[in-house]
Amino acid sequence: MSTAITAVQPQVMPAKHYLNDNYGIRSWLLTKDHKRIAVLYLISITFFFFIGGLFAAMIRLELLTPAGDLFQSDTYNKLFTMHGINMIFFFLIPSVPAVLGNFVLPIMVGAKDLAFPKINLMSWYLYIGGALFSLATMVSGGVDTGWTFYTPLSSGFVRTHVILMAVGILIVGFSSIFTGLNFIVTVHRMRCPGMTWGRLPLFVWSNYAASLIMVLGTPVLAITLILLALERGFHIGIFDPALGGDPVLFQHMFWFYSHPAVYIMILPGMGVISEIITCFSRKRVFGYFFVAFSSIAIAVFGFVVWAHHMFVAGVSVYSAMVFSLLSFAVAIPSAVKVFNWTATMYKGEVSFETPMLYAIGFIGLFTIGGLTGLFLAALGTDVHIHDTYFVIAHFHYVMVGGMVMAYIGGLHFWWPKMTGRTYPEGWAKLAALITFIGFNLTFFPQFILGYLGMPRRYHSYPEEFQVLNVLSSAGASVLAVGFILPLIYLLWSMRYGEVAGPNPWKATGLECETSSPPPTHNFEMTPVVTTEPYAYGDEEGTVVP
Amino acid sequence: MSHSQTTTTEHHPALAHQFDSLEQQKDASMLGMWAFLLTEIMMFGGLFAAYLIYRLRYYEAFVAGSTSIAVTLGAVNTLVLIGSSLTMALAVSAAQRGAQKVLRGFIVATMLLGLVFLGIKAVEYHEKYVEHHIPGGVFGKFGPTDIEKDLQEKDHKTPEAAAQIARQTEIFFCFYFAMTGLHAFHMLIGFGLMTWLLWLSRGNRFGPDYYTPVELGGLYWHFVDIVWIFLFPLLYLISRTQGAH
Amino acid sequence: MAQNGSHGHPTHGVYYAVFGALVIGTLLTWGVAFVDLGIFNPIVALAIACTKATLVILFFMHVRYSSKLTMITVAAGFFWLMLLISLSLSDYLTRTLTLGQ
User: Fold this and answer.
1) Fewer CB in 10 Å around end: N or C, chain C?
2) Which subunits sit against C, judged by 3+ Cβ pairs under 8 A?
3) Residues of B in contact with C85 (CB under 8 A)
């Protein structure tokens, strides 16, 4: 009933919590506490987000003018490659699961920690290991093959440090695998009494589904990269046609992981949106079971559509038709979610705090991105728009307009829980607005550019495309402001923000019953769950002490 | 033996803080190991899928390559690994009974059989090295002249066809070394696991209420055995009816 | 929580029986490889390999005595592998196909 963010009486920080339980660098680097590991990830991926952003800035600077006058073409190739690799492997894939999931998921199921805390810490060290390889690659000249490493360009042609980067991706892939494995076992075996599958928050369902993908898909990427390294190192013709190999096989194996990877990225974000929408509509999620099962459906269907990245690569027309049909089908569960979120908001008491702004932005932008994916799934249109800026606009709409917005929204939503303090709402709303405007200004012109025929991965273009490119670059500078602002005020809030209290949003869920920040062992006593999820409108909490 | 008598699991020294009971810990650990084996199925599986596609494409070369590797050694290795799986299963059973010496004996037996396996593998690899069948930069330069000759004389191929098929055997050998190499790498990890189990068992800590690490080690070892169960026919038995080369 | 893995174990007799079956399977597949069955050679070889693997999974790895979740997990792994293989092959095997004309 009330839309106030903070409670009526001023809150007090708990005396002991996971942040002040133990001091010193060793207590952080050797921690087994999932919450501290989440914070370690938060720092690491933020760093790589801005590295990826730097590369994006350089790309957009080059594309201000039609001529390739800022960077040489080889350098430009390195820019978009490192942008893609850093953003995908070192930011997007770990973002929600490793930061928000690690922090919140065990609390949401009523557990003291994840099933395997030491493996969780090892996941972070694997991430750092892979990240070091990525930094080493960047420092030694970068890779220029595109993040897709298509052969035989990557296996025999370029002189850049492909193997170094491949090793880094291999290592960070194992980080992802172990996070997913941890989540799966936690959700199956660590739920507190009364927490049945039907009472799990949808955030848990989404992360569970994403974890299934991590465990089943990432190993195929691992073996693909190993084979690529073998070919490159020993001159064997696995993927190189000049040596008797098959370049399309590389693409099959690569995309078998990399397509489900996009669902690894988006599913946890969708979980965040479910939590935010229901809280700020003060209404249970419409169609809980539909949303839950759609997560699983996306995870399963996501594995049978990969060749839609290869329609013009030389696959047979018949298999292309099958993959095209399946790609249309995979859009359905996503649409189910969008309809359910909208229905949740309908006749709810909607308030527009910052997380809700990001969530509503997500729904609109993800829908646009998803619908444009259908153009690409249709064989006929794909021939025309494949490898153009249409593709780039499509995946940035889902990945940035969707996923990054969800991540930032989730960060704001659980920031009080993680730090015990609220952020300045005014600045946050402003940042959200700036981000939304900047994002659309950056990427909407790219749909048009792609449709008009501008190819991707080119550092020069015909003059008639300049206006749209300038618009896009201008938008990128606005977007950058929108991303930098939260970095500043979130850090500021850790010292000067208002104390939040256990449940600043008046949300439901087990994480709202424990203090902000939570104690190291999460709960004073193991909770017992007796109510359905999202019991908004109830005055009681969901926990029986 | 006081540990194994304890049934009040809250005080069991092996119970980790995040679990409420040893039973929950065991269930979680088993599920975790199976989830990890899932990733291994997919990793080897990716290799198998690539192998399958090339076998369809270069069938004759695969036959020629397959007949050039020592099927007897491969079959013996299969039996050796199956034996090591048996000893491993018996080791788990011993751990469950708390029979510490038997447990350690069977773990050592498993490792010994594993060593035999790797020894035979080393012999095979050496044979390939001597015959110039190692894929890579020098493959085209030195061989496989013996395969080329056999293709001409025994299969009556034209010199050009024989040369082409012989060149294509490089991809077969690539998969031979990649698949058996990855498998051997996993066996080495298995040795590490066995050593760790031996170390863990020194305090007589395994018994009816806690033997999870041994069971987990067993799952891993059996999985490595299963991979070889598939590798043997796929690599060694493609087509042996044309007579040995 | 559903029935979890406080499972029984096979007796040593079962272990030895399975071991015997695995040895026989190995000798069988080795021997059959030298008999010309045409297209059935790889099929027989794979069938024997699958049988052996199933025996190891069910008895050595105790899946026969484990929870449903474990069985689903194992099945899922092989199912996903089949997805990779079959859908990739669906491309390669239909490249030269001409339906209709």
Assistant:
1) C
2) A, B
3) 45, 48-49, 52
Q: Hey, where are the domains in chain C?
A: 6-93
End-to-end CA distance of chain C: 58
Give this prediction's pTM: 0.94
Please indicate if any CB of chain C lies within 8 Å of the CB of A216.
Answer: yes
Neighbours of A43 (CB within 10 A): 9
> To the nearest whole angstrom, how far is the Cα of C71 from the nearest Cα of chain A?
14
Q: What does the alpha-carbon distance between residue A338 and residue A328 come to, in Å, rounded to a whole number?
A: 16
Q: Token pair 């009526």 is at which residue? A: A8
Q: In whole angstroms, what is the distance from residue B22 CA to residue B25 CA?
A: 5
Q: Could you give the CA distance from residue A307 to residue A327 in angstroms, rounded to a whole number?
A: 9
Helix axes B22-57, A162-189, angle to 10 degrees: 140
Rounded to the nearest angstrom, the minimum Cα separation between B108 and chain A is 28
Whether A7 and chain B come into contact, CB under 8 Å, resolves to no
Task: Select from C69, C77, C87 the Cβ nearest to the Cβ of A304.
Answer: C87
Joined together, the tokens standing for residue A304 give 């049978």
User: Can you give the residue ranges of every domain in chain B?
Assistant: 23-243
Mean pLDDT is highest, among A234-243, A271-280, B12-21, C8-17, for A271-280
Q: Looking at the predicted structure, is the pLDDT value of residue B46 above 60?
A: yes
Tens digit of pLDDT at every position of chain C (101 positions): 333 334 568 889 999 999 999 999 999 999 999 988 888 899 999 999 999 999 999 999 999 999 999 999 999 999 999 999 999 999 999 988 776 65
Q: What is the ipTM of this complex?
A: 0.92
- What's the CATH fold of domain B23-243? Four Helix Bundle (Hemerythrin (Met), subunit A) (1.20.120)
Distance from CA of C20 to the nearest CA of B (A): 10
